[in-house]
Please model this.
Amino acid sequence: MRLSKYYIPTLKEDPADAEVMSHKLLMRAGMIRKLTSGIYTYLPTALRAINKVANIVREEMERAGAIEISMPMVQPADLWQETGRWGYYGRELLRMKDRHNREYCLGPTHEEVITDLLRGEIRSYKQLPLNLYQIQTKFRDEVRPRFGLMRGREFIMKDAYSFDADEAGAEMSYEAMYQAYSKAFERIGLSFRAVQADSGAIGGDFSHEFMVLAETGEDTIAVCEDVACGFAANLEKAKVASQPVDLKSETNIPEFSSVSTPGAHSVEEVCALLSAKASELIKTLLFSVDGEAVAALVRGDRELNEVKLRNLLGGNSIEMASPEQVIEWTGAPVGFAGPVGLQVKHIFADNELGYDRAWITGANTCDTHLKNVHLGRDVQIEQFADLRTIAQDDPCPQCGRAVHFTKGIEVGHVFKLGTKYSHAMNATFLDENGKEKTMIMGCYGIGISRIVAAAIEQNNDEQGAVFPPSIAPFEVCLIALGAKDEAVSIVAEDVYQKLLQLGIDVLYDDRKERPGVKFADADLAGWPMQLVLGSKGLANGIIEAKNRKTGQRVDLELSDFIKVFSKWHQDVWNVWGLDL
RNA sequence: CGGGGCAUGGCGCAGUCUGGAAGCGCGCCUGCUUUGGGAGCAGGAUGCCGGGAGUUCAAAUCUCUCUGCCCCGACCA
Model:
């Protein structure tokens, strides 16, 4: 491609509304433009990167036995009503009506459509297993779109759905997708981790997220320091190593008594006032579950994990109690709730809270706390459970060594659905005994457009983006310098043709621009390889090659260009840990 | 959905408090010079100051209202 005839509208300044690096660079490198909140046009170079990502994913899907289809974006409401998600999915689902006043939505995901398709087609176990996928634009009406392509409302996703006759088959399908995802992200050249993820009400450990490691990631993941152990989990999922609650120990704890704690709403304030450690306090957190009060107790220095609490309650939606509800339920403003004498539907306590200690808790009276509270004697705990969020340096739930935190961007999610949708939509088949059975499903998503943003988020410097060669819009940028030296453009043209013959994606910067402009644009766009031809080099029979990632420059002999270029090409991919 | 902020040539911004000629930088067009890290000089084009209503002799500026966008907290590829 000749840049003089191409379209890459670069910007010198950061756009005012871009916050994260990938958004700024995608805008500045002339890859995307915003139409409206969370909705972007992919300009030529973004589209090329997206297509490269899609092709790698497509190859790995096909290799794993998945088959590509394309389903409609517009989906009828009645399918969603059948699974109950028309109501459950909420405002994120963009709804609309046609001229006959029939209701539709724009597809945020396709479980309903695919299940509807196959329940009409699959009659026999002989037709299973089946794994169908598509790569398509999805629409989710996010409450707050942000960060450019990282969290758009419209985005490109690969979604696959597997259908199996039995559990063993479903697990194999899941495993095949897990492997295919790992392979795809490796081939793209991303530094990533597969982590255990929350699987909500369905339960089990059959859900993994694929996280691109980047400081600006929105998710936090807990990773075991022992690489051999390999434990990695989303923070909301990570189990805390179970510590048996000592339910027997009855130490000589005196009767509990009130202490005045005027104005001390927070753990820190109470600690300061009573000269206590946060770990000697119990935080009593109140939640509203279908309008009823539920209390969850965690140690003062810990964070409650709402996902764990929700799962304990069977996956119902829970809401933090409003200040008004706290007053209604405890008789005191926020900051003074405690379990003693508390009248609520459930009182749950984190495993870490034992019977062997005297605790400080709120007194359900304004400006008052209790000390010497004994959980067995003074409070009826309905259930002890793993309720808190794992902390930095906690023991790994798998091996006991320490866990560390890192940030990640979720780019893929594999999920074993079981019969959630097939049961609701009656997708059945006859097994070898002629018995009717429900298909077992899995679903597997990859954020194609998000990967492009994540790749930039993970690879950039002061000059701009640094694309992995696997997905760079162009692998090589050929820069011809010396407008007054005609020999340069003749040789540059020859090099350009040779690169095309090698099948390289090459962008030839043949613009009548000053060198500085060309260098700056090339660095900004992040082409993995730059070839610079000027009068000086030409006089010495060489073309200068720059590896964008390492900044390393080498001279390539023009007399043997194809050979020396091919070797350097290989080297650049090797630096990324990629195979050509 | 709650809290905060912004809206002025293509982009980034000043001007708004205190009403009185619509400005700056970058980009764009023309010409000359320049050409190994975002050039210099000269000339030029480009604005419903987000929309509507109001106050006033007079509104980018004050009031009301609508819309759009961004940022901070609960969901997801």
